Amino acid sequence: MFIRFRFSFFKAERIGIRAILLLLLTGFVSLSCYSCSSKDTESTDGHRHYYNSRSRRDYRVVRFLPQWTHQTQFAGFYVALEKGIYERFGLDVIIQNGGPNAPVIPALSTGSTDFSTLFLLTAMRHNRDGKFLVNLGQISQKSSLMLAAKRERGIESIEDLNYKKIGLWHSEFRDLTNIFLQRNKLEVQVIPIDYSINLFLKGPIDAMNVMSYNELHRIYQAGIDYEELFLVRMSEQGLDIPEDGIYCTEEFFLKNKELSRDFAEATMEGWLYAINHEEEALEIVLDIMRRDHIPANRPHQRWMLQEMRDIVLAKPGVVGKLQKDSFDQAQALLLENGQLTTPIEYKRFVPNAP
Question: Which pLDDT belongs to residue 17?
Answer without folding.
Answer: 32
